[in-house]
Amino acid sequence: MPIRCLCLDVDGVLTSGRLWIDDAGRPLRAFHVQDGLAIRWFQRLGGVCVIITGKESNGVAARARELDIVHVRQGVEDKLAVMDEVLRSLKIAREEVAAIGDDLPDLPMLRNCGFPIAVANASAPVRAAARYVTQRRGGGGAVREAIELLLSREGRWADVVAHYEAQAQGRRGGA
Questions:
Q1: Structure-derived torsion over alpha carbons of residues 88, 89, 91, 92, reported in degrees to the nearest 10
Q2: Among 1, 94, 109, 150, which residue has the least CB neighbours within 10 Å?
Q3: pLDDT for 126-140, tens place per residue?
Q4: What pLDDT, in 10s, does the model give residues 86-126?
Q5: On the CB side of 43, how many CA atoms lie within 13 Å of its CA?
Q6: Residue 53 CB neighbours (<10 A)
Q7: Full residue range of the structural domain in which residue 74 is found
């Protein structure tokens, strides 16, 4: 069954899990640009990305807006309940969902989706629950790796690469 929805944790998945705190007490996070490109393509090819995170952050909201991620749930204690709520609204079955996590609060999503993924530096129980464990660490391109895998399984990552190859060919011919 194809994966139509990707549920993402933030800290430890889209970021390294480290939190820098500025002088005003605000947490700062760093996101990986390659994750962003892959998320855009996943959505462009018809997939839906959902962010479900336990913390609340203006930075997460800003990054989601930048990537056109509409379904963002922050301050979540029960990630599975929120995932199910979003899936009902989208009419997507759990079997059509891949979830990416790194720590214990992500386990319920991973154990109740079609394709559970753990980042390389995930906790042992999360890695054990995953069908796939990325080579890359959270915040270091793990989401990109996972999306490449998911789209490659359906033969669609080659379309992404072909898009840029065509651009390269067009520019070479005009120079």
A1: -70
A2: 1
A3: 999 999 999 999 999
A4: 999 999 999 999 999 999 999 999 999 999 999 999 999 99
A5: 17
A6: 24
A7: 5-174
Return the structure tokens found at 147.
Answer: 């999306």
Q: Model-level pTM?
A: 0.93
Find where tokens 């651009």 sit: 167
The answer for residues whose C-beta is within 8 angstroms of residue 79's C-beta and 6 or more apart is 9, 52, 54, 105, 106, 108, 109
What Å distances lie between residue 113 and 9, 35, 140, 153, 171, CA to CA? 14, 21, 24, 17, 42
First to last CA, the chain: 44
Q: Residue 51's domain is classified under what CATH number? A: 3.40.50.1000
SS3 (DSSP) at 139: coil
Question: What is the total count of domains within the chain?
Answer: 1
Of 134, 100, 128, the residue nearest 114 (C-alpha): 100
